[in-house]
Specification:
single chain; about 240 residues; alpha/beta; Rossmann fold; eight-stranded mixed beta sheet; 8 strands; globular
């Protein structure tokens, strides 16, 4: 029985099981998570820019997050958590799949990184964080409204929230599901197009949770350049928000 004071779980067990099955080769740039490896440079560039803009840090500094706490929600095996730790943050990574958390711990240990990895959902987090990230996750949760509310609770006053997610457009259906999943570039069944959020829908959920969106930037794909930041949000996009 769930008591009124206990947050509703946002974990979709089917989604957790799906990603847990991919844990073994998460760090293989040619494996089932190859698309995430290709996305990472553009995403990391965006995050670094938003960090520098928000806190006024030196764009040439190596540890702009030194002295700050970061939470990576839906961390998988740590593709983002590890770079955040290298930027100086005290990182907590949380994921619904125990297999992912085990892979993340093992990889971080091999890199000499101290990251607090936990199994669970956003509702299991206690305390608040200066930076909260959740990339390509919200489209996989059981309750998007409860998930965004959990992200808002985890964000400290003056903190920064960064999300990324596919847009619900004909282009994302064609490329992410028809082409990428159809040809095996992404494991089949990874996406449910109906669960994709438009930027307007996500902005409304963030506002409802008491957050103010300060930036929305597209992630587009070029055959010659790969994934890159863009004004075009029709495939995928990144959102930055702060407490209003």
């Amino acid at each position: 029985m769930v008591h009124a004071s206990e947050p509703q779980s946002t974990i979709d067990p089917g989604e957790a099981a799906h990603f847990g099955r991919l844990a073994a080769d998460w760090w293989d740039p040619k494996g089932s998570s190859a698309m995430l490896h290709k996305l990472n440079p553009a995403r990391l560039g965006y995050i670094r820019d938003r960090i520098d803009h928000h806190w006024g840090t030196d764009e040439c500094g190596r540890t702009p997050l030194k002295g700050r706490k970061a939470a990576d929600i839906g961390c998988g095996a740590g593709l983002l958590s590890e770079p955040l730790a290298r930027l100086g943050a005290e990182v907590t990574g949380i994921d619904a799949a125990p297999e992912n958390v085990a892979a993340a711990r093992l990889h971080a240990e091999g890199q000499g990184l101290k990251i607090d990895y936990r199994v669970g959902g956003v509702e299991q987090l206690s305390g608040t964080y200066d930076l909260v990230t959740s990339l390509e996750v919200i489209e996989h949760v059981a309750d998007t409204r409860a998930f965004v509310a959990g992200l808002a609770r985890a964000l400290a006053p003056g903190g920064l929230l960064i999300l990324s997610t596919p847009n619900r457009t004909s282009l994302s259906r064609l490329l992410l599901i028809g082409l990428a999943e159809g040809t095996g570039r992404i494991p089949k069944g990874t996406h449910d197009w109906e669960k994709f959020l438009t930027p307007e829908e996500l902005t409304a959920l963030l506002a409802e949770a008491g957050l103010e969106v300060t930036d929305t930037t597209g992630l587009s794909f070029s055959v010659t350049r790969g994934f890159m930041l863009s004004e075009n949000k029709s495939l995928d996009y990144l959102v930055t928000a702060r407490k209003a």
